């Protein structure tokens, strides 16, 4: 498990391109037959990717200091690839592309498998600390709460799907969902905002092989960018904006941990002072 440590916003102003990418960009999540795990000390979020050819078990490791991964944690999973199966303490959950699964605290055995090993699933997952168990539940995009945002004139028309949240699949603190941009729209989360009380991770997918995406981060008056490509994630501290623009439309998964689960708890950025 790779460890990432927190960064101070004042120090962030001095980072060059390589340092920004090293601290915040998450790449190579889906290597055939492998599981990748990144432990961020921002609210102790774990970011992961699983691409199973043969079944792969979820294991805790030294970084968590527990007997099993979800002893003191909860987890959200969304499959962004071919069909797969997640087995939780003997219960099988088949996940097609964009299907999600919430796994509650105290779940001991979690096993990832692909329905067709020649075309392995791409399980993207986020995990945060949990104080009580909630039911393990599957969620599909068609049944999720939705919100349509943006305008064609601003090139930011998008549909937001809420998977794990208080009015949907309940959890201790993890909030997770997906946003899909319509054809002709390239901007996400713009006008932008911060939420000082929560950190966030963005995972971009469904970009074409030659497409790039410029993810914006930093304090509103000291912004930087990261060039990103398909199936890459970025860690967004609570002090940072999180917005982006691609060379074509795309989708992204968002996940948050922090002091509350109120989706509208955010501080809008006045674009007049945006730099």
Describe the fold and architecture.
- With 275 residues, this protein is mainly beta.
- It has one domain (2-273): Jelly Rolls, CATH 2.60.120.10.
- 4% of the residues lie in helices and 44% in strands.
- It contains two helices and 24 strands.
- The protein has helices at residues 9-12, 17-24; strands at 2-4, 25-26, 34-40, 45-51, 56-57, 73-79, 84-88, 91-95, 100-103, 110-114, 123-129, 137-139, 145-149, 158-164, 175-181, 187-188, 193-194, 198-205, 213-219, 222-228, 232-236, 243-246, 251-258, 267-268.
- The strands form five sheets. The chain has a seven-stranded mixed β-sheet, with no helix packed on it.
- β7 and β8 form a beta hairpin.
- The radius of gyration is 18 Å and the shape is globular.
- The termini are far apart.
- The mean pLDDT is 95.
